[in-house]
Amino acid sequence: PRSIFLTRHGESEYNAINRIGGDAPLTERGRRYAAALRDFFILQKFTDLKIWCSQKIRAAQTAEELKSLFPTEYWKALDEIDAGICEGLTYDDIIQRYPNQSADRERDKYHFRYPSGESYEDVVSRLEPVIMELERQGNILAVSHQAIIRCILAYFYDRPLNELPYIDVPLHSLVKLTPRAYHCDSTVYKFNP
Ligand code: F6P
Fold first, then answer.
1. What residue owns the CA closest to ligand 1's atom 2?
2. 145 Cβ below 6 A of ligand 1
């Protein structure tokens, strides 16, 4: 059976100071995760693994050590949810500057669209071609972002849309999905880089 591996990028400079979005590089710890991921896939001995990476710097740096070993493609559709006017802010900044939007998001996180940005619903529609392709492919590792992986997991786990934005996808963990006839097996590998 083939497997779909999903991971967020390693810790970025923005993760370390709680800022959302942006295009920050990895921290030292994030780079150690990239190295651990490379070692993991070397041990797995896949001959036919393909890597799909977002176009953000933090994701590209996470895949950097793997790209000489496996064919790698960079998909804009795997970029993190666009937080529009909130890009680069912390959640505290957002509450301070945009209390109404903040409350709206809490009420209906799936449909809330960041001004000049996206909602989870928007992300689900931009991921449609990615998911269709994932269904057809063999072994894939997707290196992407929290909101994106939530949407992909909700599809394979068949989770309701109102729960989708709350699926737990911590940094430095790797999910392995193995699609079966009527369900999907999953294993989570946790790293402590
Ligand atoms: O904080 C990291 C991050 O990937 C942000 O870039 C993104 O806006 C956020 O997580 C998505 O999570 P939530 O929808 O829970 O804010």
1. 20
2. yes
CB 27 within 8 A of CB 13: yes
0.80 exceeded by pTM: yes
For residue 131, what are its two tokens?
């998911």
Ligand 1 centroid to 80 CA: how many Å?
Answer: 8
| Residues 6-53 pLDDT 10s | 999 999 999 999 999 999 999 999 999 999 999 999 999 998 999 999
Gap from CA of 149 to ligand 1 centroid (Å): 11
What ipTM score was computed for the predicted complex, to two decimals? 0.99
96 SS3 class: helix
Distance CA 187, CA 62 (A): 20
Q: What is the pLDDT of residues 47-77, one digit of tens each?
A: 899 999 999 999 999 999 999 999 999 999 9
CA distance 14 to 52: 22
* Three-state secondary structure string covering 140-185: EEEEECHHHHHHHHHHHHCCCCCCHHHCCCCCCEEEEEEECCCCEE
CA nearest to 146, candidates 14, 2, 42: 14
